[in-house]
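Fold description:
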Amino acid sequence: MKYPFSKTPLNEFPFNSRVFENEILGATAANYVLVAFRPGQALQASELNEIQETYYKNLTLHSVLLRNWIGATGATFGPSWPGAVPLQTTSCSVSSSSGSNTITVKKDWYLVDDSGFKFWIYNNTELTTAISGNFIGLEIQSQYITPTTDSNLNDNSGGAMGSAIPGADRYQINIIGITQGATFSSNGLIKTLAKNEGGTYKYLNGVSVPGS
């Protein structure tokens, strides 16, 4: 289960939303943040249900985000900054050994900005790397996924995928790595996560990364 969800209301037949199986049930979240319809192509009822469930999934995550961050020690403002915001203050951690620092970005939900929008994506692989730069960022990758690439996007009105009726494309965003630098800020594919302040790594609202 990808906290905090255990099921979705419209996953059941005949509604067939794909949010539960794509984002929550499997070992790897698909991170389909948008449904990309093509003019002249058939619209699936399940895709409309998917849009609804994605909206409420995101609303739920925002509520959990606020609960986890309000009152966090050192916060100078709320859990919102351009870049990457973890669902929990403990989603990342820093460890030190022999004078060097290492950051771990755990499997969890992260709020990232892309093209001026905010999207919730799930980090499918725990990432660890040595750090020495002043700024730490998450590297993201975005792309369009078609039903040819993912047959799960074809029409599922009969309870099984019907390749004769292709579905809409999906806009996908994934976290693919950790990067660092002396001065960079969030732009393009790099989303700032934390910075070094006097030897302590802190999220951009002033909360210390655990272990710092």
Remarks:
- The first strand starts at residue 32 and ends at 36.
- The mean pLDDT is 90.
- Residues 19-203 form one domain.
